[in-house]
Amino acid sequence: MSARDTIVDAVSRALRDLGYDDAGVTVAVERPRDATHGDVATPVAMSLARILKKNPMEIAERVVSSLQVGSDVVASVAAARPGFINFRLAAPVLERTVREVLEAGEAFGRTNDGAGRRVQVEYVSANPTGPLVIVSARAAAVGNAILNLLDFAGYATQGEYYVNDHGKQVEALGASLGFRLRERLGLTAPGEALDQYQYPGEYLVEIAAEVDAGQARAWAEAPDAAALGRFAAARLIDRIRDDMRRYGARFDEFFLESSLHPTAVEAAYGRLVASGHTYDEEGAVYFRSTAFGDDKDRVLRKSDGLPTYFVADVAYHASKLDRGYDRAIGLLGPDHHGYVARMQAAMTALGAPPDWLEIIIVGWVRLLEGGNPVSMSKRAGEFVTMRELIDDVGVDVAKYFFLMRRANSPLDFDLTLARKQSDENPVYYVQYAHARIASVIRFAEERGVSSAGSDLSRLT
RNA sequence: GCGCCCGUAGCUCAACUGGAUAGAGCGUGUGGCUACGGACCACAAGGCUAGGGGUUCAAGUCCUCUCGGGCGCACCA
Question: What is the interface pTM, i.e. ipTM, of the complex?
Answer without folding.
Answer: 0.88
